[in-house]
Write a structure and sequence with these properties.
With 226 residues, the chain is mainly α. The protein has one domain. The protein is built from 13 helices and no strands. Helix 7 packs across helix 9. The longest helix has 21 residues. The radius of gyration is 17 Å and the shape is globular.
């Protein structure tokens, strides 16, 4: 399904209703990716507008907006054939080891314009690339830490709500580890690195992983303390 065909235009009252229903549903069942996606879209328009303006001011961001690459199997499958030291191979290993598919993301439905719909789609599709760059696992701590980075990069309200929801579900040991180690690191990492929404990742798949981390100011995640 294309971005254009997936879109549904809503009035402000309808957006509020979808946001409220999605929030309640996501609290009841945090694994409902479709509800979380709907909440991001219906509450994130101002944030996506700011990201769009930043992308328009960046040469690489403008290239992304012009060419509209997609992180889907059809366009990124070559990453599985790259040398082990490359960014692309690290991404392929991350996806393969978890049996993830680039095509699993739900489509963006509630953005008002095609341009904003693409920005929201891009933000959704680069999520696993950021996991790879920062070396974050996909457990509750890893996902919560990445949401902090996403908030620092895009100021999406749902990111902070996800972090709050995640900390509520932590056990005592997880909460202590997150607050003492991962939260301070994620705030620093999200602020120090380059504007990650203005990076044309697909052009850098064949480059050395550590090289692109240095180039983009990426601070890898802390190791689990002994």
């Amino acid at each position: 399904m294309t971005i254009e065909r997936a879109r549904v235009l809503l009035s402000r009252w309808q957006q509020a209703a979808v946001a409220m229903g999605s929030a309640v549903g996501a609290l009841v069942n945090p694994r409902r990716a479709d509800l979380i996606a709907a909440l991001v879209e219906t509450t994130g328009k101002p944030a996506f507008e700011m990201v769009l303006e930043r992308m328009k001011k960046s040469p690489e961001g403008r290239a992304i907006l012009l060419e509209r690459p997609r992180v889907v199997s059809e366009q990124v499958s070559h990453a599985w054939d790259l040398p082990d030291n490359t960014f692309g191979a690290a991404y392929a290993k991350f996806m393969g080891s978890r049996n993830f598919s680039p095509d699993d993301r739900p489509p963006v439905r509630f953005m008002e314009t095609d341009e904003l719909a693409y920005v929201a789609t891009r933000a959704r599709e680069v999520h696993d690339l950021w996991h790879t760059l920062f070396g974050l696992p996909t457990n509750l701590i890893g996902e919560s830490a990445l949401k902090v980075i996403e908030f620092e990069q895009m100021y999406l309200p749902m990111c902070m709500l996800s972090v709050i929801g995640g900390t509520v579900r932590f056990n005592e040991k997880q909460r202590s580890m997150f607050l003492r180690h991962y939260l301070p690191w994620a705030v620093r990492a999200g602020r120090q690195c380059t504007d990650l929404m203005c990076v044309y990742y697909e052009r850098h798949f064949s480059e050395d992983l550590e090289q692109v981390r240095r180039q983009w100011g990426i601070i890898p995640a802390p190791q689990h303390p002994k």
